[in-house]
Known about the structure:
Blueprint: E1 8-13, E2 33-34, E3 39-40, H1 41-51, E4 56-61, H2 65-74, E5 80-85, H3 91-100, E6 110-114, E7 117-120, H4 123-132, E8 137-142, E9 150-153, E10 159-163, E11 172-179, H5 197-203, E12 207-211, E13 217-220, H6 224-238
Parallel strand pairs: 1-4, 1-6, 4-5, 8-12
Antiparallel strand pairs: 2-3, 6-11, 7-13, 8-11, 9-10
Amino acid sequence: MHNTSPTQAVVLAGGQGSRLRPYTDDRPKPMVEIPGTGVPIIGHQLSWLAAEGVTDAVISCGHLAEVLQEWLASADLPLRVTTVVESEPLGRGGGLKYAAAHLPAPGQPWYATNGDIWTRFSLREMAAFHAERDALATLALARPRIPWGAVETDTFGHITDFIESPPSPFLINAGVYVFSAAFTELLPEVGDHERTTFPRLARERRLAGFPLPQGAYWRAIDTAKDLTEAAKELASQRG
Length: 239
């Protein structure tokens, strides 16, 4: 089997982004700008995908689709982009399947990413990991920091230490995927693949988890606080 990295990707950009109001009152979540960059989240994603060898992206729009389509039409994009809009809500799995139907090479593997994830790591490495395990689907896994300070105690109940925002003991789904061509037909027409397809593949040991490399940048932009944090991190990286 020749190991080629996918050159096609689906970006799921249909979310309401209600927790990002007022930023999302007039635009979908992926169109929210990362402060200090002048570029919306989706712009950062498309640059990243292009840099990782992706030539074609299908963007699944929903909430305020026309704002996103307008931006795409006027932006200087590093790859070919097609947009699709669900006429009725198909659920996460159905939406993914509907978008995948518009990929240029149905017989080839593909990447998918949630439209609110801002990250940088080697997708090619993830694709190689996916191929090595002969998986049907591979999820990127992140270890987020817990937003609270943690307290350590000894067996007797004395507090021994305080740790500010420790890394979570659990890995989470980072919202970036590699899918084999055969995965597409396992998706539901309507409904949520994370409750159906993924658990089934996990039982069959055909689902792999790729831990993000140490020090890789990853953030889900869910709230206004995430935007502020992202801007801060960006400034410290540049400084």
